[in-house]
């Protein structure tokens, strides 16, 4: 287990002191024991990074608490030169996150820590300020908490909060107390959507608020319903005069459309800048540093023949034609404007990633950094770019990127040392198309002792195996002796429009053909054992696992997490029902498609032992998919109950992912033990999990 930073520093919670008092320097060692899954899950995780006008660099770093019940974030100061160790700035049991520097050099952050002056609501996230020297204090709070979105040049802030439907910021606290005391949990729905990922929609009205430097709140959107801003992305102009926000409206057929609206912060007058229609919607508005331009992501509507494509448009605020960024095959991830007026774009590219700089006048692009997946772009005033970088073999690390040198890593907790195997890019030809993937092979594998092989298929389907994953880390399996192949087949990101649309609309036979062809291409290697194999996948990969189980018996074990099973059921019950039904129609309209591609139709052909895992709070792929799959597997088993090989790991408090470290520990142990049993012939997992 990694040393606790509290062993090396003197915490001053609940208030933090931001000055060099001799405490806070850390001596973390690199993690390398991948047999220690609990230790792996306790590796500090870099979550975000921010830069100040005086060259300061601060990162938010998450760590599991003592019991593994949750991840807690704290703020660390990094040496921008990369010479000195990181220094911890904040300490509390609630944690601190989302650091942003204010114009005066103070550090703003979010935290639900107790307010020593009693001004902030208990257990809700407030905006705090940590001055250059002195203690952190609450800037502003609200009954439902505040999420900081942007800071203007004069120190005014844009934040988001929520009120109960029909209420105001002024009466929200009282109304929440009354609702809680009455134990009322009803939600009155008047349309779609009603859920998103792991939370309900309709019991809150999300609001955008302007926060003065002194903490006064102004509701910029006092008359909105429960859908208008539920997923809104917004930004504040540098002069604090205008807010640009996505603006969602319901339309016929259970659909919604997201436009871009401008709100005058003085008058609250709202005007439409970009109106969504049947062909395109808009999101992620971001003002340039001089306030003259607005970057916006335009997404086309998906259909049975075309997936949704994203474009990055740059709109002159004063009027004029927009410029579309020339991104090539890059799929958009993160955006940031620089002081000199360029727009930085990070995203997936060819099973890796890159950062491009865009000329806002022409849309022309130039590569700033490549060979890694970059996020949390934080350009400094002097033109230096700070960001987080990761890849399949490296978790997110803070880096400094300059025009004349390769990215330099900054010292910070959370580094990983030697991996338990090798990482290699492999390719093959599938009908004239090059399909590649990452192959991880244990260091111990040889012709004399070849490694069993796992095939992992990623989710999305618009995704890529190009980055480090805390949820599905191949190195835990490699340490266990497995080789892992992670392909980027049809519909993967980072391969342009053609790559995204190949295999649309979510055709599992196309995806499996590409994955299986690559799998068969690497299996002849002497260090790999083609006679002992497993297949694993989550979300879309879980759908693939379910479909593959009914169409081949070549694998010794299949693990499916959050997988779709009965498409006629899932397409109507998912939180994304509108887009699913738009693309796939009703089953009576496309009976052949549903018959061929809904996994439940091939139940009778399943012979491979399956481990089903699913979170109860998953609204993207409702747990009803796992419940129906489990019933079908159990009720159709032609044998004594004790001989049935299938198993179901139900995660009652998790959503689409497994986020709690203690649950992730049990999940990883169960997955590996299940594969050990059916691939390696190990002892079965006991009736009561030992983890």
Q: Report the CATH superfamily of one domain.
A: Alpha/Beta hydrolase fold, catalytic domain
User: Strands of the biggest beta sheet: in what spatial order?
Assistant: 31-32-34-33-35-36-37-38
- Identify the overall geometry: globular
Q: How many DSSP E strands?
A: 38
Strand content: 25-35%
Textual characterization of the structure:
The protein contains eleven helices and 38 strands. α7 crosses α8. The longest helix has 20 residues, at 661-680. It is globular, with a radius of gyration of 25 Å. Residues 1-15 and 17-26 have low confidence and may be disordered.
Write the SSE topology.
Blueprint: H1 37-41, E1 45-51, E2 57-64, E3 71-78, E4 87-88, E5 96-101, E6 107-111, E7 126-130, E8 137-140, E9 147-151, E10 157-163, H2 172-181, E11 195-196, E12 199-200, E13 205-211, E14 217-219, E15 234-236, E16 242-250, E17 256-264, E18 270-274, E19 280-287, E20 293-300, E21 310-316, E22 323-324, E23 331-337, E24 343-349, E25 352-358, E26 365-370, E27 373-379, E28 385-391, E29 394-402, E30 405-409, E31 421-430, E32 433-442, E33 451-457, H3 474-479, E34 483-488, H4 496-501, H5 508-522, E35 528-538, H6 540-549, E36 557-561, H7 567-573, H8 577-584, H9 591-597, E37 610-615, H10 624-635, E38 647-651, H11 661-680
Parallel strand pairs: 33-34, 33-35, 35-36, 36-37, 37-38
Antiparallel strand pairs: 1-2, 2-3, 3-4, 5-6, 6-7, 7-8, 9-10, 10-13, 11-12, 13-14, 15-16, 16-17, 17-18, 19-20, 20-21, 21-22, 23-24, 24-25, 25-26, 27-28, 28-29, 29-30, 31-32, 32-34
Helix pairs in contact: 7-8
């Amino acid at each position: 287990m990694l040393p606790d930073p509290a062993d090396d520093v003197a915490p001053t919670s609940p208030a933090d002191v931001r000055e060099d008092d001799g405490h806070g320097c850390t001596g973390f060692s690199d993690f390398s024991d991948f047999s220690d899954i609990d230790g792996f899950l306790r590796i500090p995780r870099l979550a975000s990074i921010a830069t100040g006008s005086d060259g300061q660099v601060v990162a938010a770093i998450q760590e599991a608490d003592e019991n593994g019940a949750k991840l807690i974030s704290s703020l660390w100061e990094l040496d921008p030169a990369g010479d000195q160790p990181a220094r911890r700035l904040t300490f509390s049991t609630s944690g601190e996150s989302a650091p942003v520097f204010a114009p005066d050099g103070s550090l703003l952050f979010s935290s639900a820590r107790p307010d020593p002056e009693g001004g902030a609501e208990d257990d809700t996230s407030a905006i705090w300020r940590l001055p250059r020297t002195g203690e952190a204090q609450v800037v502003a709070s609200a009954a439902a908490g505040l999420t900081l979105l942007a800071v203007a040049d004069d120190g005014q802030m844009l934040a988001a909060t929520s009120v109960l439907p029909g209420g105001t910021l002024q009466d929200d606290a009282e109304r929440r107390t009354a609702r809680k005391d009455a134990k009322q949990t009803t939600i009155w729905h008047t349309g779609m959507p009603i859920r998103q990922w792991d939370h309900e929609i309709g019991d809150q009205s999300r609001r955008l608020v302007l926060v003065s430097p002194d903490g006064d709140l102004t509701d910029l959107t006092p008359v909105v319903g429960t859908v208008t801003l539920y997923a809104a992305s917004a930004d504040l102009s540098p002069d604090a005069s205008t807010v640009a926000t996505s603006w969602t409206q319901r339309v016929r057929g259970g659909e919604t459309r997201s436009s871009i609206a401008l709100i005058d912060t003085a008058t609250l007058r709202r005007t439409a800048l970009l109106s969504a229609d049947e062909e395109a919607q808009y999101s992620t508005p971001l003002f340039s540093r001089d306030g003259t331009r607005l970057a916006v992501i335009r997404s086309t509507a998906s259909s049975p023949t075309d997936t949704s494509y994203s474009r990055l448009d740059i709109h002159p605020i004063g009027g004029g034609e927009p410029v579309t960024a020339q991104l090539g095959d890059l799929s958009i991830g993160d955006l940031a404007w620089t002081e000199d007026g360029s727009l930085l774009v990070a995203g997936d590219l060819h099973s890796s990633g890159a950062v491009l700089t865009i000329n806002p006048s022409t849309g022309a692009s130039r590569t700033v950094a490549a060979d890694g997946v970059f996020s949390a772009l934080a350009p400094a005033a002097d033109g230096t770019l700070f960001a987080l970088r990761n890849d399949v073999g490296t978790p997110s690390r803070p880096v400094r990127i300059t025009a004349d040198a390769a990215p330099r890593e900054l010292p910070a907790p959370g580094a990983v040392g030697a991996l338990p195997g090798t990482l290699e890019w492999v390719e093959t030809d599938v009908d004239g198309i090059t399909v590649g993937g990452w192959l991880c092979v244990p260091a111990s594998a040889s012709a004399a002792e070849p490694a069993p092989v796992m095939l992992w298929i990623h989710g999305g389907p618009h995704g890529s195996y190009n980055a480090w994953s805390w949820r599905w880390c191949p190195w835990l399996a490699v340490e266990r002796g497995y080789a892992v192949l992670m392909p980027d087949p049809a519909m993967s990101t980072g391969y342009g429009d053609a790559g995204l649309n190949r295999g649309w609309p979510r055709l599992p036979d196309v995806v499996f053909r590409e994955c299986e062809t690559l799998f068969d291409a690497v299996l002849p290697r002497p260090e790999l054992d083609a006679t002992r194999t497993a297949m694993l996948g989550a979300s879309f990969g879980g759908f693939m696992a379910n479909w593959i189980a009914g169409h081949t018996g070549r694998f010794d074990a299949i693990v499916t997490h959050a997988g779709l099973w009965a498409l006629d059921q899932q397409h109507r019950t998912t939180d994304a029902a509108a887009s699913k039904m738009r693309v796939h129609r009703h089953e009576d309209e496309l009976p052949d498609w549903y018959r061929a591609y809904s996994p439940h139709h091939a139940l009778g052909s399943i012979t491979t032992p399956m481990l089903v895992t699913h979170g109860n709070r998953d609204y993207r792929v409702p747990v009803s998919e796992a419940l129906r799959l489990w019933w079908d597997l159990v009720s159709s088993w032609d044998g004594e109950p004790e001989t049935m090989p299938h198993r179901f790991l139900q995660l009652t408090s998790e959503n689409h992912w497994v986020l709690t470290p203690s649950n992730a520990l049990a999940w990883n142990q169960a997955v590996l033990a299940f594969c050990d049993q059916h691939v390696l012939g190990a002892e079965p997992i006991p009736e009561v999990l030992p983890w």
